[in-house]
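Q: Got a minute? One more chain.
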Amino acid sequence: MKYAAIFMIVLVVIGLGLGVYTYANAHLSLMEVSMTAAQGFERAADFSALQAAMDQGALLGTAFADSLPGSNMDYTFETYTFRLRNPGLIDAEMVEITPLPAEGDMLAFATLDAAQVNANLTVPAGSERDAWCTLLVSANQDELTRYQRRFRVTYYIWGMQKTETVRYQQ
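A: Always. Here it is, folded:
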């Protein structure tokens, strides 16, 4: 009976240790952020599609302005790539990255493919994955704003929402 009690205590301690380890590592780590910029005229078809979607109230993303006045020459597409790492034992699900808007931001989106808009972006346990956020900004946006941005990363682990603010700085 004494050995059974000791065995049960060891099992409880191991179970608690595993639970604490799992809970302590239930977060995403940002490994790196990179940005590529393209002038609006380089992505004229995408700009036209976004302009039409805003006019029709059917934008697949987040609008920071009521409309997109002017032409594609007045805007720049900035695509931010985030390398996310999940050190935990549980998948991070429904990962979403949104910018904290700054002066000159017009809209943000993850994809222009309507079939992928509600796709569940998951970072599997113990692995890394890239996630993207594209901003359409005014071409004459302040350089300081352009190279010092903050983003909100929202995800779910064990059904609990977690939010972190990350910074891109060049």
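A: The longest helix spans residues 2-24.
Q: Perfect, thanks.
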